[in-house]
Amino acid sequence: MSLMYSLVRTAIYTFLFFALSLVIYLAFWFVIRPYKKRKHFQRYSETIGFSSSFIPFLGDYKHLNEVYLSKGKFIGHFLRDLAVDFGKKKAFFGSLGMDDMVFINDVDYLTEVSKLVPHVLDRESIDTTGFGRIGGTGGLGQSKTTKYWALRRQIFTKTIGVNHASRFIPIFIKHCEKGVSEFEEGQVINMSEVANTISFEIICEILYGCDIRDKLEKVRYTNKDGTVEIVNLYQCLMKISHDCSFASLNPLNILFPLLVHYSIGAENRRNTKNSDEFERVIKDICAKSQDSNSVYNQVLATGEIDKEMVYKDVMTILFAGHETTSKSLCSALFQLKKHPEAEKKLRKEINESLLQNGKYSLKDLAKILNTEALDKMDYLTCFVKEVLRHDPPAVRSLGYKAKASFKVKDLLIPKNQIVLFNLYAAQYDEKQWIEPMKFIPERFDPSSEYFLTPNGKQRHPFAFCPFTFGTRTCPGRAIGLMEFKILLIYFMLAIDYEVDQEILDNPDVTYSIMSPFTLDMKIKKVHV
Ligand code: HEM
C-alpha cells in the first residue's frame, strides 16, 4: 500500500515538476522576455517606434493582422508604412511569438549600423532541418563571416560577377524564348508563375551547366496523406517552401522550435523527408554535371573549396537567385501598363538602341544585346532602378545578430538582438525622395528635377538600397541586374499584353517576395 502511495506521489511530483517547468519556460520566452525587451526599448521612445497592441504570446500579431494581413496586405506594407506612419522613427521594435527584432529605418542609422558588420553584427549560423536545408544551411547566406567564408564568396562572385555576367545573356534569352513559345493569343497567364519558372531554369543552367537539362531528375514528393507524387525540381522547391512556411506558423512549432529541429510530429517529419529528397536530387545533379562552364564545376575546379561546401553554396544561390529577379520582372511589366508614358519612352529607347541597319529580329537578340548596348540605355537603367525602389523584391535584409551590445547614436541595442535593415522605409523616406509613393523613373536621371531630395540636396547613398550595402551585400547584384534588364527587354519585344484595370488601380499591389498578389496578364499578340 505504502509502495503504491509513494509511486503515485512520485508520479504526481514528476508531473507537477514538468508542468511547472513548462509554465516557467512559456512565461519566460513569451511574456517576461518580450516584456523586458519592450521595456528596454521604451527608454528610447523618441528614436524607436512600437505597435500599440502588444499582447503576450502573440506580440504584435494582433496589430499586423488587423491592419495588414486581414486586409490583403502583407508584412512589406507594414515596413513601408514605418517610413510614413510612426512619426518617422529611426527604428522599430516588433515581436512575434518568441522572436523579436529591431528594424532600422533611417539612412543615417543604417550607415552607422552597416559599419558594425561583421565585427559586431553578423549572420547567425542556421542549422535546422527542413526549410533551412533547402535554403542551403551553412551556405554563403547563412554562415558567419570568416576568412573561409570570404574566400568562398570571392570565388563565387568572380564566376557570376560583373565581368562574367554577360556570358549568361544567351542563357537568359533561351529560357525566355521557351517560356513565350507556350503563350497563346487571347490567353490569360499567371505571369508570376511563368517568371518564377523561367528564372529558376536560368539559375539551374548557370549553376549546373547546359548538359544537365535532360538529366534533371523528377523528385518524389510526399503529400500530407502519405501518397507520393512525382514532380519537377521547381515544383518541389515551391511545395517545400510552402509547407515549411506553413509549419513556421504552427503554434506548437513556435512554442517548441526543437520539434522542427528534431523532426518530431507528422508534419515536421514529412517536411524533413521532402527536403532530404530534394537535397539528394541536387547532389545527384551536381555529380552528373560535366559542363566546365557551370558555376559548380568552375568553383570546384579552383580546388580551394571543399566539395560539400560548394554544394551548400550552390543551394543558397539557387534559392537566392531566382525569385528576386522574377518578382522584379513582374513589377516592371505591371508598372509599364500603369504608366503608358514610361512604356512609350522605354520602347523608343530600346528600339533606337537595338536598331541595326534599320531592323532587327528577336532571333538576333542574343547577338545584339551585350553589356555595352545595355550601358547605353539610360532610361532603362532609370526605369529598372525605380522598379527596385518602388517595389523592392526583398523588403528587408536578411537577419543580423548582435554579438555584443552596441550603441547606434543614442539607441542601445542589447547583445543577441536580431537586427534587420528596413529597405522599404529607406526607399520611401520623405526626406530623401520627392513624392516617394509615386513611380517616377526620372528620379534617377541627373538632369531631372526629381533627382535631388525635397531640400535640393544630393540623396544619401543608402536611400536606394535594394541589394543592401557593406560586407554582406547581395553578391548577385551584377548578374541580377543584367538578367532583370534582358528579361524585361525580351518580354516587351516578344508580346503585347494587358493587365486588368482593377489591378492597375489598386494602390496596394506589390510583387515583393511573400506578397499575396500575382500578375495576371492577357496576351494580345505574340511576336515570335
Ligand atoms: C534583383 C535581384 C536581386 C535583389 C534585389 C537581391 C537582393 C538581396 C538582398 C536584399 C540580400 C540581403 C543582403 C543583406 O542581408 O544585407 C541578398 C542576399 C543575397 N543574394 Fe541577392 N538579390 C538579387 C539577386 C541575386 C542573384 C541573381 C543572386 C545569385 C546569383 C543572389 C545571391 C544572393 C546571396 C548568396 C545572398 C546572401 C549574401 C550574404 O549573406 O552574404 N541575389 N540579395
Automatic annotation (TrEMBL):
Gene3D superfamilies: Cytochrome P450. GO terms for molecular function: heme binding; iron ion binding; monooxygenase activity; oxidoreductase activity, acting on paired donors, with incorporation or reduction of molecular oxygen. The chain crosses the membrane at residues 12-32. Heme binds at C474. The keyword Transmembrane helix applies. Keywords: Heme, Iron, Membrane, Metal-binding, Transmembrane, Transmembrane helix. Its cofactor is heme. Signal peptide: none annotated. Belongs to the cytochrome P450 family. This is Cytochrome P450. It comes from Euplotes crassus.
